[in-house]
């Protein structure tokens, strides 16, 4: 399999968190933002947030300016951190509705990092089984293992994220260096 280099990006790199939790400022969103901050620090990038809880009404209606901005923000990210709680052994319908707005290749050139929070450890495989395939179907590259946490691990999320960035940061840095 051949890989295509990421397109050249002008301006500072951006790490965008998409929070698929239907509750604003959820623990899932907080974990996603911690991951994005760690990635941004590693890459010398800035961060941005797309909180789907604020766009829930727009996702099932004709396109709105707010939704279009959110889609464009996510698609223009150097790294897209896609954070979701586990719902019915997969990701949220809110996140599904957002990702369904992209056509084939809509996330081409984006490096994506799945972040999943589960109530039960048995559901931690959902990121690799369900979220990774949809992101790659949309053209994103998923060069690292996902960030996985059970609800009981969230109080120690900083340690979890520090361990993840220590092992997975080099792969993201190498991938995004193509664009620098």
Please report which band the strand proportion falls in: under 5%, 5-15%, 15-25%, 25-35%, 35-45% or over 45%: 15-25%
Count of alpha and pi helical runs: 6
**Average pLDDT level:** 91
Q: Give me the strand/helix succession.
A: EHEHHEHEHEH
Per DSSP E runs of 2 or more residues, the count of β-strands stands at: 5
**Structural class estimated from helices and strands:** alpha/beta
Q: Could you list the spans in which at least 5 consecutive residues all have pLDDT below 50?
A: 1-10
- Classify the helix fraction into a percent range: 40-55%
Strand order of the largest sheet: 2-1-3-4-5
Query: What is the CA-CA span between the terminal residues?
Result: 24 Å
Radius of gyration: 15 Å
Give me the oligomer status: single chain
Please give the largest β-sheet: 5 strands, parallel
Report the principal-axis shape.
globular
Secondary structure: elements and pairs:
Layout: E1 14-19, H1 27-43, E2 46-51, H2 56-59, H3 65-75, E3 79-85, H4 93-99, E4 111-118, H5 126-137, E5 147-150, H6 157-177
Parallel strand pairs: 1-2, 1-3, 3-4, 4-5
Helix pairs in contact: 1-6
Describe this entry's structure for a reader.
This protein has 180 residues and is of the alpha/beta class. 40% of the residues lie in helices and 17% in strands. It contains six helices and five strands. A five-stranded parallel sheet has the order 2-1-3-4-5, sandwiched between helices. α1 links the parallel β1 (14-19) and β2 (46-51). The protein starts with 13 loop residues before the first strand and ends with a helix. Mean pLDDT is 91; it is low at 1-10.
